[in-house]
User: Fold these one by one.
Assistant:
Number 1:
Amino acid sequence: MILVDTGPLVALFDPKDEQHSRCRKTLSSIRESLSTTIPVLTEAFHILQPQSAGSGRLRDFIARKGASIWNFDRAALLRAFELMETYADRPMDLADASIIVAAEQLKTLRVFTIDRNDFQTYRVRRGHRYHPLEVIE
């Protein structure tokens, strides 16, 4: 499973985005299932603007199960808040924190993002160890 961050979702569905072609090429090469989170979707819809064609294409993509949606429970939300404090110097927003918590719970280290700098800094906790993410661009 590969977790999808906000940047690729915006770029994939907004042909004017400078990362559009690169993200389309990356998506076409991915064979694993994709998942994202509600905070990531919220951020993507905000950037795309709710009534835009890109927003409509993103809604269609999710409706056609192009990516599954991972949901927070209370413990996951509290873990996200903890991560936001840990990475406050970046600063880490809720969307990024949700990706890290999803990676911890879904046991994946792969993330499709255009935000390489932040995601190469973040670590996924597995027991007492911390692991770097594999950034898919």
Number 2:
Amino acid sequence: MNDLSAAWKTHEAELRHWVCHRLHDAAQADDVVQDIFLKALRQGERFDALHNPRAWLFEVARNILIDRFRLAHETVALPDDLPALTPETATVDKLTACLPRVLAELSAQDRDAITQCDLQGVAQADFARANSLSLSAAKSRLQRARQRLKARMTQACQVQLDSAGHVADFVPRP
């Protein structure tokens, strides 16, 4: 415990300054510094055996800050006067009615890739593992399936694009 006390007395001010500089908030910096001290305290005799306690303390600080930044989800409030669907987005939303029928017309492999990755939100890496594929093979499979879905939807639902390449109109399929 003597090594922890000595290291803390030597490096606490520098550590607090470093954390505060990155957070721009003294209260949050104090919380992080307290977390660092608690982690060091939990190390017990292992802390005493460290060759470079300063490096260890700063590494812990860096990891705590990374975790905090990852968890911080900034949100932006939508304005009250946000317009309803534009005609273009309304058309695209209606086009989703064609999706089940066209999706059923794709090969099982294409349908599975699109259903899992695009509709169910399965990560491509997880899809690759589940199908015994490399990540690049899974990405290629999904990209080709999306291209075939687009071509099939364009043909089957008679999708018409405007001059900018956006969906302008289509013929719904039952």
Number 3:
Amino acid sequence: MSEYIHKSHNVTVLLYHLVFPAKYRRAVFDAQVDEVLRDVCLKIADRYQLKFLEIGTDEDHVHFLVQSVPSYPVTKLVTIIKSITAREIFRSCPHVKKQLWGGEFWTDGYFASTVGKHGDEDMIKKYVQNQGKEYLKLHEDRQLSLF
């Protein structure tokens, strides 16, 4: 669940819905890739000032519900998540690199939306779960914790 982040001069609750398609929209997400993706994202959350509230895959793309601080613009969040996850997935799952002809893991584009613009957090979660053919929830954080 999202929470208010208290810094020295501000209090924020910034939530982003991010969607990253795999390169060539290839269906590369299997159980092994899902596990590596979840583990890497949770390690990213430990190192950077962001929190993954939900991560879900749907054959050829991934949905993230991410909370962050205002000093991280959306482009920085996208760069951090895409670069680290791609490197670790290629390292841990060499069959994926072969499927993608040795190229990049993610497409250059992405979708980003703030939760407050189109509704509340639960509405966005329901929207994410109803997208695509087969939604598989990899992670959900409902425990309150300190950043």
